[in-house]
Backbone:
């Protein structure tokens, strides 16, 4: 059963003039009004709900609802709200997991970079040590060569008498 009321019926229930209600009804969207078989404008249930919101008064009473039905509807609303909260938290967890995975990957990259730098540093130290050994070896060879040259430069008598 659809609930429809004429402008006059609404005016009587609200205690307002028919003209004031008629002006409000004209402002309603077309889907909230229709014409009855007599051609009189009637306001549909959705329009009546909008008028109730505008005037902050009850125009029609819904059929009585049992406490069980009210309780069930309340439970459904609570379950829906909790499900929405669970979904929101689950999405939040997924986002955090993704962030952690990205951080883990960044850490792996950094670890590889550090290992590569350590390897390069070790190679550099080995090269430096080898260069120092080569320099020392060359210095000894140079000193020996100088001594040999000095020995060959000494005169005949100096060489003869060990001088």
Residues:
């Amino acid at each position: 059963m659809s609930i429809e009321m004429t402008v006059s019926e609404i005016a009587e229930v609200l205690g307002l003039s028919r003209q004031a209600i008629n002006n409000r009804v004209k402002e309603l969207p077309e889907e909230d009004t229709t014409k009855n078989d007599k051609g009189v404008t009637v306001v549909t249930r959705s329009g009546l709900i909008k008028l109730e919101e505008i005037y902050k008064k009850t125009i029609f009473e819904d059929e009585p609802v049992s406490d069980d039905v009210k309780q069930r509807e309340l439970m459904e609303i609570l379950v829906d709200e909790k499900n929405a909260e669970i979904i929101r938290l689950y999405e939040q967890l997924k986002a955090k997991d993704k962030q952690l995975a990205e951080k883990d990957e960044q850490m792996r990259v950094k670890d590889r970079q550090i290992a590569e730098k350590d390897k390069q540093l070790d190679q550099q130290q080995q090269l430096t040590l080898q260069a120092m050994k080569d320099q020392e070896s060359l210095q000894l060879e140079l000193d020996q060569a100088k001594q040999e040259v000095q020995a060959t430069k000494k005169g005949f008598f100096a060489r003869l008498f060990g001088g």
Notes: The chain has a mean pLDDT of 86. The beta strands are 5-6, 33-35, 41-43. Helices lie at 7-14, 18-27, 45-55, 67-153, 156-160. The longest helix spans residues 67-153.
